[in-house]
Structure formats: structure tokens, C-alpha cells
Amino acid sequence: MASGIVVPTYKLYGEDRPWPTPDLLHWESIAERSRLHNWQIKPHQHNGLFQMLFLQSGSATVCIDEREERMRAGQVALVPQMCIHGFRFEADALGSVLTLAYPLFSRLVQHADNPLATLTQVQLHTLDEKRERDYLSTAFEELGAEYRQQAPYRELLLENLLGGILLRLARHVTHQARDAPAEQRARRHFSRFSQLIEQHYAEHRPLSFFAAELGITAAHLNALCRQTVGRSPLELLHERVLLEAKRSLVYSAMTVSVISDRLGFSDPAYFTRFFRKQTGMSPKVFREQHGGIGGGD
């Protein structure tokens, strides 16, 4: 994410005060906070916190950067730190929001093979088995009840309940990721390509650079991307540049000229042509339509 973008960063949504408890975790019901905001949690991010949201009943829309996903009862949203996210809940939705400070989270997922430790994007997970849904529903409710009271061995019991939740979710993430060996290799290549895009999207490198970094040919990279996500490597690169451009236009006061330069374009006119081709409108119009805070062009 380019510097200069202003996205609200909270400990807990809507609060500027310090972490409200001596615990390294915070539990609340979905309704406690979302009802105060008309059941809508606007896009924001957390620094130093890992968040889990379990939707017990009702439905919601999860906003992740530029896309939206529908969330239904029985699903869990996993939100690593500094991921921009928001929620629109159906009125009277029921569920729990569990927020962990990273020192606690890291200690509980310290095993090298725990997939939760390496998450870098918001993920939605569907618990297909009733037994799994019932377990998590009970565990979240028991953790909430224990959190709200002061009783002997409270901290130890909270960590045990939390450990059970994290291990169940880690098992679910692992099961979802199991593929045939060839598919695993393809996914590893694609995952590495995604990392390279994140590192170099503003440098306008040729596809041959990325293929060489992966140790494969450009043709192989093209086939790999089309097979995995149905899009070409160039389309994925353009999508990442476009996403950063949109973020900058909406969340920052940088001019179009400055944004163009930060994204590696040789001149603002070239950037404007690229943006118009991708979106059907100019950067200025996009900023106006999306309520950007930006300055002049």
C-alpha cells in the first residue's frame, strides 16, 4: 500500500482511545458495536491485532478493498493486521467478534506449520459440518461469558478456549488447502507470483522478469495464471496498479500527478489513459464519485 493513503486505523472500530482492557484479547457481540453504527462498519484497518468474526445467525456483506463478499450464518471471517475491511450486517445479526493482540496471537500459533500465522489477507471460511459449527458457536459463547466476568483462573481458561478455536480454524484452513501435488506446485508458483506483484507492481517490470524470478517461462506463467484465476499475468499486474490508484484517489489528498509518479508512470497523461481504459472514467471523476478527500489535479 503506497504511503500517503489515509485509511482509519483503530484498536477497536470507531475508538481512538488506547486498548480498553489489560487483557491481550477483547470479546464483544456483533450487535454491541454495529448497532451503534446502524449495522455498518466502514472500511478500516487494525495495527497489531488479529480479528475473528463468527456469524451465528443472520447475514452480512464483507467489504475487502474493492470487492464485496456475502457472509452467511456459520461462516468465520479471519482478519490479519493492516487489512482494509468493513462489514454491513443484517439488522439483529448474531455472533461474536474476537480481537487478539499479536503477542498473544503469535504465541498461540507459533507452530511452524500453523497456516493462521502466515495469513496476509482477509479470508472467509465456511464450516460445512454441523459439528464444527456447533463447536465454534459454543466456544465463542463460553469465551464471551468468561471474558465478561472476573473469576479464578479466568486468564488460563480464556487462553484454553481461544487455543481450541484457533486450532479448529487452523485445521479447517489446512483441509481447504490440500490439493494434488501438481496443483500444490501451481499454487506455490502463483502465491510467489502474487508476492512479486506486491513487491514490484509500481516498477512496470516485463513479464519475463517475473517468470525468471519463478524459474519458469513467460508462457508457463501465463498458463499458470489463466488456470488458477482465469486471468493473464498482465491483467493481474494491472489490477494491482489500479487498486493502488483507487485507494490513493479515495483515501489520500495526493494529486493525480503525484499518484501517477508513485505508481511508476512516466507522465500523468499516460496514467490517466490507463485509468480510463480500466474503469471507463478519468481519475478525477472517480475521485468525485467515490467521495475522495484528494487535492487538485
TrEMBL record:
Keyword hit for DNA-binding: yes
Any Pfam family the entry gives: Cupin_2
Source species: Noviherbaspirillum humi
Stored CDD domains: cupin_HpaA-like_N
Family matches, as PROSITE patterns: HTH_ARAC_FAMILY_2 (PS01124)
Designated name of the protein: Transcriptional regulator, AraC family
Organism placement in taxonomy: Bacteria, Pseudomonadati, Pseudomonadota, Betaproteobacteria, Burkholderiales
Keyword Transcription: yes
Superkingdom per UniProt: Bacteria
Limits of the HTH araC/xylS-type domain: 191-289
Keywords: DNA-binding, Transcription, Transcription regulation
GO molecular function: DNA-binding transcription factor activity; sequence-specific DNA binding
